[in-house]
From TrEMBL, chains A, B, C, D:
Lineage: Bacteria, Pseudomonadati, Pseudomonadota, Alphaproteobacteria, Rhodobacterales
Pfam family, one: HbpS-like
SUPFAM superfamilies the record matches: GlcG-like
Origin: domain of life: Bacteria
The protein, known as: Heme-binding protein
Amino acid sequence: MSAALTLAEAKSVIAAVQAHGRAERMEPLSVLVLDAGGHPLAFERGDGTPPGHFTIAQAKAHGCLMIHAGGTAIEERAAAGDPFMQAAPTLFGGRFVACRGGMLILRDGTVVGALGVTGDTSENDLAAGLAGLDACGFGAEG
Amino acid sequence: MSAALTLAEAKSVIAAVQAHGRAERMEPLSVLVLDAGGHPLAFERGDGTPPGHFTIAQAKAHGCLMIHAGGTAIEERAAAGDPFMQAAPTLFGGRFVACRGGMLILRDGTVVGALGVTGDTSENDLAAGLAGLDACGFGAEG
Amino acid sequence: MSAALTLAEAKSVIAAVQAHGRAERMEPLSVLVLDAGGHPLAFERGDGTPPGHFTIAQAKAHGCLMIHAGGTAIEERAAAGDPFMQAAPTLFGGRFVACRGGMLILRDGTVVGALGVTGDTSENDLAAGLAGLDACGFGAEG
Amino acid sequence: MSAALTLAEAKSVIAAVQAHGRAERMEPLSVLVLDAGGHPLAFERGDGTPPGHFTIAQAKAHGCLMIHAGGTAIEERAAAGDPFMQAAPTLFGGRFVACRGGMLILRDGTVVGALGVTGDTSENDLAAGLAGLDACGFGAEG
């Protein structure tokens, strides 16, 4: 099996996501890394962002982890009217949201955690997250 | 009245569901049996499945039990826009989801419990559950 | 790092706990195995036991896992008036209880999950759990 | 009024807390900084620490912030049997715990956030937190 994410790895992912956001002149981003069980490893909220950003980043990342799917697939299933996706935010106690910006973190093909990014458009949140994971050598399902 | 489900019966149902899933080369399944009051009797989560599978299997089975209906009927009512089905996940504290894979367990026509199966497509989850209940001599409403 | 618990391992632990309980003529036991992230892997509830046994077994196991401590230590700290232990059931959303019968599952000294046993006295719940883990070759902190 | 905490400041506080913990050979620490409204700004969880550390650090910090008091005063009031302190974890939805390691972050005498530290003894958690805030030029009520 793959080794668990370390704090150093989680922080390097967050730094790489933020670097991508700045390079692309995105809005300030908030970024959360969860371990494979859905528990927070590291988080930072962009300056001047709304107080709800932790909750949103958590819902994005935690939702992906609970069903082992990327935020894009979740968003598409919800848009297609999948009734599971309507119920999922309630099922998971508010820690699920059907929109891009949540993604799985893969090491050697195994899910070792999840990443939640929020602050710009969902497309840009996703792009920053994927860029950060790639820069740190992780696979992703976004 | 019909005799309550025993633990041995619950486990034999789970084993039969898993056997069907393996025979049909389905994805690893997670299977939950609830008693007639909606409380867990036995559960197992397939290897490598996401952490949210207990929650999903519970929502499928518990929802069926709360209104004594099969998951197919629930899903169809939700798809038809039934407002009750929109509210039900919240009404039941997250233990309700309008999709196939939840089913009633019947003995002599009486509801003695509910079964929740998740892991493959909803159609396959349902098929595995029905096959398992039939193999163990139970009636079902799925 | 240590490999994650498999479903086969979780089921063998439950079977060993139940065998010990029967050999010692204990009351019917309910037994839950959680993975390292606190999510259910396998459960069975003893015949004739109250409907709340899943919730109790979950609170025992999940509480141990959240703070990486055995149920005995948790119970002793609570008995000594530790204010954290008073608050912990609320902090962890009802998935924490300060009494014996919850224990950590260790492989090569690493926490790979948690076990919750309930049904007899807390002392016996603990004894059955420890016996089952030992019989299956796991370390424990109970 | 005092300027709001920036993300850079929050991260420098966490780094200083961690540096103190390492210098004093403490157990790995988990450290959370909340803004003046009680919402997460930055967090990191020490390697190998239990999954519940975010929840505990949040309860420590959030509790202090909600009543503008340090964790030591809160713990002492709870130990003296103050009924408010018994109710507070429930009042604040699980984001309150009466033990040291939560502290207010002050700038020019004004509360600009809160810090939660957990991982070693409560005394050491508090000491690391106070050392980190002092190293970064903040006042504290711990």
